[in-house]
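Field log, afternoon session.

UNIT: design team B
ACTIVITY: writing a sequence onto a fixed backbone
BACKBONE:
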């Protein structure tokens, strides 16, 4: 099979892949909604399709981040990093406090949940920061030429 070199055909092929991804995602969501209807949330989370859906969503989100940063105008990445860090910290603290106030949960549970949320929030924030720093360096290198 020959490699496609015509840009129009490459773009059309990418659009076909995009449509197939959308159809596949809708199918997975339909299966998961059916699982919720039949057996509840626990049955849905026990289904391996749930893990595939979550993994696909996470990978797609990270790939979208790198694409969105490429279209941004260069700006100070430290300011965005600090604001995002404060927002993630505030959300984490709020959830931890609300968890501690929930009957049946203690401060140990809230610290664990807050810690997991902090890590899960800090990873994308740090990734975006590194992408923005990399983009800013590329823009500076282009300006120096």
């Amino acid at each position: 099979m020959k490699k496609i070199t015509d840009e129009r055909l490459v773009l059309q092929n990418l659009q076909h892949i995009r449509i197939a991804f959308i159809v596949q995602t809708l199918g997975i969501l339909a299966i998961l909604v059916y699982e919720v209807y039949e057996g509840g949330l626990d049955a849905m989370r026990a289904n391996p399709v749930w893990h595939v859906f979550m993994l696909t969503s996470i990978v797609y989100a990270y790939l979208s981040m790198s694409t969105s940063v490429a279209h941004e105008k260069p700006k100070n990445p430290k300011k965005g990093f600090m604001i995002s860090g404060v927002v993630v910290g505030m959300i984490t603290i709020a959830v931890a406090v609300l968890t501690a106030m929930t009957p049946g949960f203690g401060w140990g549970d809230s610290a664990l949940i807050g810690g997991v949320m902090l890590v899960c929030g800090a990873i994308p924030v740090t990734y975006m920061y590194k992408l923005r720093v990399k983009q800013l360096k590329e823009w500076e290198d282009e300006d120096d030429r």
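LOG NOTE: Helices lie at 7-39, 41-46, 48-71, 77-101, 107-144.
NEXT ACTIVITY: expression trials, pending approval
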